[in-house]
Design brief:
The protein is α/β, with parallel strands linked by helices and 141 residues long. It folds into two domains: 2-34; 53-139, Nucleotidyltransferase, domain 5 (2-Layer Sandwich), CATH 3.30.420. 40% of the residues lie in helices and 19% in strands. It contains five helices and seven strands, in the order ββααβββαβαβα. The strands form two sheets. The protein has a five-stranded mixed beta sheet with strand order 5-4-3-6-7. A two-stranded antiparallel sheet has the order 1-2. Helix 3 (83-94) packs across helix 4 (112-124). The longest helix has 17 residues, at 18-34. The N and C termini lie far apart (67 Å). The relative contact order is 0.13.
Length: 141
């Protein structure tokens, strides 16, 4: 705290503001440093290629892939399916499995509306996680 001297009315107290500003600047820097700057995003599930061929065969037997073809047809693990039979067939495949994860692969010319319809039917059938397979992912890029 400082004092102004020299006035005839007596001493008058005035606060010294400089240390207060220094403290505030230090606090601002501390809060900027400790604030987490991690980006927020969506959780994704991407199939990873396995180095072992035997594990790859077991993974292919375990993995369920729904393909949406450009002519409106569906395939479940390379078996033909229809839009009406997709839900019951998925329920049948996953009724004994504890991990309910499936993947959707759409052709390049298919509308996303059809892929979204397949994802919606799979969610209604009790699938917890649905991943997307792209052409680059399939090529290993």
């Amino acid at each position: 705290m400082g004092m102004d001297v020299g006035s005839s009315t007596g001493s008058m107290a005035s606060p010294n503001v400089v240390p207060l500003i220094d403290i505030l600047l230090v606090l601002i820097i501390i809060f900027m440093v400790i604030t987490p700057l991690t980006p927020k995003g969506l959780d994704t599930l991407v199939p990873q290629p396995s180095p072992n061929q035997q594990q790859n065969q077991e993974l292919e037997n375990k993995t369920v892939v729904v393909q949406v073809l450009k002519d409106g047809k569906l395939k479940i693990n390379n078996e033909d399916a229809t839009w009406d039979s997709l839900g019951p067939r998925i329920e049948e495949v996953f009724k004994d499995r504890a991990e309910k994860v499936a993947f959707v692969k759409g052709d390049n010319d298919v509308l996303f509306m059809q892929v979204a319809r397949a994802i919606d039917i799979m969610h209604e059938s009790g699938i917890d996680k649905v991943g997307l397979i792209t052409a680059k992912l399939e090529a290993g890029q």
